[in-house]
Amino acid sequence: MLDVHLMIEHPNNNVQLFLNYLRPGDTVYIHPEAEYHPSTTLQKIIDAGMIPGIAINPGTSIETVYEMLRIVKKVLTMTVNPGNAGQLYMTYVEKKIKRLLKLKDEMGFKTYWDWCMYCG
Question: pLDDT tens digit string along 6-52?
Fold first, then answer.
């Protein structure tokens, strides 16, 4: 199975291009901050038989995405800001990861994170 992380603005405009070439059961992550109505994009992913996921940037709070946690099956927590090479691991994200680990069983999602000591 594939995990596809869409690091694009307005993924709803382009998600179908990816869905056409993926298989049912593949995961598609979107950044909810990049979409006006991310739940609409997540529903397209679900309707196509894919596994919906969100990727959360370091500065995005859990409260901002809380309702989407009921929709998605996977949450990817970014420990650096996407698209900016050469960053150090942002240690404050650990608190967010711990909170997500406490919520995952209640909300029905799996949680992942991109970990690196030095991204370059």
Answer: 999 999 999 999 999 999 999 999 999 999 999 999 999 999 999 99
- CA dist 13 and 103 (Å) reads 30
Reported pTM: 0.90
Strands 118-119, 87-88: pairing kind: antiparallel
- DSSP state, 29? E
CB burial class (10 A; 0-12, 13-18, 19+) of residue 117? Answer: exposed
How does residue 57 score in pLDDT terms, banded at 50, 70 and 90? Answer: very high
Q: How far apart are the first and last CA of the chain?
A: 27
Our CA dihedral for 97, 69, 35, 85, rounded to 10 degrees, sits at 20
